[in-house]
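Listing S7. Sequence submitted for prediction.
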Amino acid sequence: MNAAPESNAAAFVARYRATADQLCGDDRVRALREAAAETLSAGGLPSRRVEAWRYTDLNPMLRAGFSEALTVIATTPDLPVARAPHRAVFVDGRYRADLSTLGELPARSLAEVIPHASPFLNTVAAASQPMVTLNTLLFEDGLVLDLPEGEDAGRLELLAVSTGATPTSHHPRHLIRLARRARLTLIETALSPAGARHLHNPVFEIEVAEDAHLAHVRVQREAETAYHLAHLGVRVAEGGTYDGFVLNAGGRLSRSETHLQLNGPKAAAHLNGAQLVADGQVADTTTALDHAAPNCASRQTVKTVLAGRARGVFQGKILVRREAQKTDGYQMNQTLLLSEEAEIDSKPQLEIYADDVKCSHGATAGALDPDSLFYLRARGIPADVARSMLVRAFLQEAVEIVEDEAAREALEEAVQGWWSLHGEAA
């Protein structure tokens, strides 16, 4: 009898078996981990034959060897200037209290409060999603934030730094909950030094209660040798708003996947973003937006800039349930190709079961406008400067959507950093 083929996630499961006694968790968490191990052992991680992963190949990540037990790195990395009065710092996936400034904010390390947080794990993020399954298997820490009713917490910075000292994987699990009428601006930044080899697999479980407002800006600037696979599960209640923006500007492979449900009337969601992709890189923005209640609105604009032999992916699905009458949904994906070798795979989708809705979607792709380039060159502007101006103008519409000044500055800095590295070759 032939033996069953080994799962492509066998190395991750083996790592779990070797470190299970050291991973945080109570009996419920251990049961979740065991279920995740069984799922990965049986089915593995998705191949391109799975429709949701048709355009994104995980094989290079699986061959990279992020399977050894995590080594705790005692180093203190250089950190960027703080952009908020509150800051939570994670180094190689673990919370660093000595580098963080949470003050009176009701936020804690997941590893410290796991018995309290255990009932909320896998209640927003779907356990059936492959990167959630992998995260559940191996998470060691994360941020737990519970904002009480009516509190305006201002701005919080979540900084994830991977040192790249060894080729390890990090799987933080972040639980963010805003009670009724609470407000927060969360600026999340992922960084690693040039040449760092690591897998960063964060999962967020976010709940926005009635009339609460969360502005969540995510900036991914990790090394071009790294892999970044993020999953966000979000639920928004009546009158609540999730205002999200993600900028992918690093990583050999980056995928930002968001599953969001509007659960109450007059809830709103913004899932905007931009992808800056250089030669040899792949960036994937995948979203699934579920209108499950009437009188809700959603907006999504994702812009992609591709240079060299870069590849971008956009998959966006809007589901309007039968009871979600008077839905207002908009989705647009726009791509700027700076090379004839660049490739974009765009798949916007609408699935509508209600009859009183206003929904639209679209996708465009093209090169720099030669007339605009000629106009600038005719006025004495050098070719590289003219190209930079046109690329920035293309991105500016997306970045201007972000209202918070500090968050917008973080995005503009990332755009400038990417162009300074890749603009000449674009």
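Caption to Listing S7: primary sequence and predicted structure tokens for the chain studied. The first strand starts at residue 86 and ends at 91. Residues 10-369 form one domain.
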